[in-house]
Specification:
Layout lengths: L5 E3 L5 H13 L4 E3 L5 H8 L9 H8 L4 H13 L11
Parallel strand pairs: 1-2
Helix pairs in contact: 1-3
């Protein structure tokens, strides 16, 4: 399994991003965060405030992370004040 690579398709919220970082730490250079080209549209139309509620500590830590994919999603979270569940990828 050491040669396997992974694409993380979790929730686009602090907890989902934290899960991605745990995987990326355990499997350096083998984990990619899936970011669909229409992710911002999902934030606009399907975002949920409850997904970021009570996660300010995690979000604060994520804002300091240099990973470009994390930065992109955190920017959307900050801009719209919501998170997005992974199920939007099925639509």
């Amino acid at each position: 399994m050491k040669n396997c690579s992974y694409i993380h398709c979790g929730d686009y919220d602090p907890v989902g991003l934290d899960e991605y970082l745990r995987l990326a730490t355990e499997c350096p250079d083998r984990v990619e965060l899936y970011i669909p080209s229409n992710l911002e549209d999902h934030f606009i139309h399907h975002g949920k405030r409850d997904l970021i509620k009570n996660n300010s500590e995690i979000l604060s830590r994520l804002r300091k992370n240099p990973d470009p994919a994390i930065k992109k999603v955190v920017d959307l979270i900050d801009r719209y004040g919501v998170g997005v569940e992974q199920e939007v990828l099925l639509s």
